[in-house]
Amino acid sequence: MLAAMPPTRATYTQQGESLIRDRGDACPGALRLHRADDGSLARLRLPGGLLTSRQVEVLATAAERLADGHLSITSRGNVELRGLGEACGGELSALLADAGLLPSERHERVRNVVASPLAGIDGLGHADVQLWARELDGLLCAREWTTELSGRFLFALDDGRGDVAGLGADVTLIAESGGTAVLLLGAAAFRVPGADAPRAALAAAGAFLAAAREAGNGAWRVRELPGGQGVGVAEALTGAGIPGTLTGPPRLAAPSTLAAPLPSTLAAPSTLAAPLPPTLAAPLPPTLAAPPPALGGSPALAHPPTLGGRAAASTPDVPAAAAPAAAPVFGTPAVAPAFGATADSSAAVPASDAPGAPGAPGAPDAPDAPDAPDAPAASGTPTAARAPGSPGGPAASGLPGDAQASGGPAVVPAPGAPSIASPSGTSIAAPAPGVLRGAVLVQAPLGRVSADQLRALVPAPDDEVRVTPWRGFVVPGFTDEAARERLRVLADAGFVTEPGSPWLGVGACTGRPGCAKSLADVRADAVPGHGGLPVHWSGCERRCGHPHGDWVDVLATGDGRYEVTVRTGGSAVPVTGPTLTEAVTTARASTRTTVPMTTTTPTTTTR
Predict the structure, then answer these.
(1) Rounded distance, CA 33 to CA 41, Å?
(2) What is the pLDDT at residue 122?
(3) What was the pLDDT predicted at 574?
(4) Which run of H or of E encompasses 79?
(5) Alpha-carbon Rg for the chain in angstroms
(6) How far is CA 110 from CA 102, 180, 428, 577, 592, in A?
(7) DSSP character at residue 235
(8) Residues near 260 by Cβ (< 8 Å), separated by ≥ 6?
(9) CB 406 within 8 A of CB 266
């Protein structure tokens, strides 16, 4: 039976103290729905974003028969059905279970696993982390204690290219050459055998749960642990019989060039290459520059220890609380930010969790929030006018329906391609639309697709469709000619299929009329345009579903106007212009070093 979510609020004891979660999170799931103004909402977790052709068809059928005919893609590569009726519970769960989309009802909300969507396709990574995702999913569903993880707790499995390492996950695995992987949790980094990587991620999650119980604040995520709270990752690895060595941040995959996807109008992919961003050689954070002290105040170790010299007699099914031992215990991102995380995402107490802040994460009226970073505080920046009588919706503004000729080679990053921050301060673009080594890459305009668009993705030659954290799809296994033909079909269906599309990198929350908190119909107001930074249109200060890394924040203020802000490197810089469209265009052209600053008062003009 589908259940409605109870309200969940974070509380504080005194100013400056860490938050206290006094109940479980209220993230929606496939069996526990969120009630919205447009009906109920179900969120289905897709570990690694993986779907079979049959599962794609089942989701299209569910969207048509039970929901509003569409599927929404989240920033974790999960999918949502909106507009569900009150009595659809049994039919929805039966459809999903029969298609293999609900391997364990008790674990359905904790299967939060993102993985490099091009792993095993383009030859750039060090491991096929999609295989890790399947193994980790099986491990999560096979253990009772993992149901204690919140619906927000996130695993990221990066094949070494750095594409998902910056998505703010709680536990991150990054594949390395030589068959090893780096395990990251908070400020702790351990090198483990690649064959043990999924088990190592599970052990790290168990260490977090033990630390959360010890802290007593009900933390849902690693960054919510109190500052200074130890997390016994080393002990958890040893207890699981996994050898691990304390290390620093890893480097990106070795290739010197990064081939971009082949647009439908171009020739051989050998002509499409752009320099790879600098390798991730950033200095270690302060807490990793020297090994931290062990519990009990003992001096810092002279050398990083090598773990796993002895195997534990048994691996308990339920992780035990961390106990003082020779193995070091490390702090949380409250002390040092995690690899690839932005300054905002590693804050100990997110601004939206502060007392009185609207829409605290996990609130029942914030269904998108669990798939997004914790909403930043209101910026209070100047506003750009929204013109009366502006185009009524994306279709009126030119949503893609046909492939556009790019007129030249695709470049990484493509215009408007979402990007993530690396430890060295560079940005790595998400996969651009096109054809790459027999795989078709497309994006969903504003992260939403119809049932017919879903069906256009299949049949898949390898019986595999991958949903990406950038609200797109990867369909591998074609010959190059067949891939170009499928790309044309998907362009006709309305997908973003070209690296030069003005809709690339444009996102929006649900907005009106579906969300009661929204102050505007942001999906109708969103406009296309070229630019280096992704842009996200938000109907309220929660900014549900906004991207990670550097981005342009377009926030509705409730008076027919919007605030436009560039959020980069932990800073927020207001941008104004004669019209809203011009302000957004200026903001998207910004970089870390050239952020436009203005002190003029915005005027009310038409677009």
Answers:
(1) 5
(2) 94
(3) 94
(4) strand 79-84
(5) 23
(6) 12, 26, 28, 43, 35
(7) H
(8) 269, 272, 273, 274, 409, 410, 411, 412, 414, 432, 434, 436, 499
(9) yes
Give the whole-angstrom CA distance, residue 220 versus residue 112.
13
- Report the C-alpha dihedral over residues 346, 351, 354, 358, rounded to 10 degrees: -140
10, burial (CB in 10 Å: exposed 0-12, middle 13-18, buried 19+): buried
CB atoms within 10 A of CB 106: 11
How, if at all, do strands 419-421 and 571-574 pair?
Answer: unpaired
DSSP labels, 376-422:
PPP----EEEPPTT---SGGGGT---SPPP--S---SSPTT--EEE-
Residue by residue, DSSP assigns 22-65 as: -S------SSEEEEETTEEEEEE--GGGEE-HHHHHHHHHHHHH
Single out the residue of 421, 443, 452, 367 nearest to residue 533, CA to CA. 421
- Cβ partners under 8 Å of residue 347, min gap 6: 223, 333, 334, 374
Q: Are the CB atoms for 586 and 578 separated by under 8 Å?
A: no
- The distance of Cα 606 from the centroid of its chain, to the nearest Å, equals 35
Give the CA angle between residues 21, 22, 25 to the nearest 5°.
65
Residue ranges per structural domain of the chain: 108-258+271-349, 383-395+505-588, 400-493
Do residues 96 and 104 lie in contact, with contact meaning Cβ atoms separated by under 8 Å? no
- CA nearest 117: which of 101, 133, 102? 133
- Which residues of the chain are modeled with pLDDT < 50? 1-16, 254-427, 592-607
CB atoms within 10 A of CB 188: 28
Measured over the CA atoms of residue 186, residue 187, residue 190 and residue 194, the dihedral's sign is: positive
Four-residue CA torsion sign, 519, 525, 530, 534: positive
Query: Which pLDDT value is given to residue 287?
Result: 31
What is the per-residue pLDDT for 456? 99
CA pair distance 308, 314, nearest whole angstrom: 13
Both structure tokens of 191 = 């090198």
Tell me the CA distances in angstroms from 471 to 47, 123, 256, 391, 522, one per residue in order: 15, 22, 27, 24, 17
The predicted-structure confidence for 375-432, as pLDDT tens digits, reads as follows 322 323 333 333 333 333 333 333 443 333 333 222 233 333 333 334 333 445 678 9
pLDDT at 573: 92
Q: Say what the pLDDT of residue 548 is.
A: 82
> What's residue 289's pLDDT?
33
- CA atoms of 166 and 420, how far apart (whole Å): 6
Strands 188-193 and 245-246 come out as antiparallel
| Predicted pLDDT of residue 251 | 67
Parallel/antiparallel/unpaired status of strands 465-467 and 50-51: antiparallel
**Amino acid letter, 233:** V
485 φ, ψ (degrees, to nearest 5):
-65, -45
Residue of 51, 87, 85, 45 whose CA lies nearest to 68: 85
Nearest to 188 by CA among 244, 240, 128: 244
The residue type of 511 is G
Nearest to 528 by CA among 411, 448, 453, 416: 416
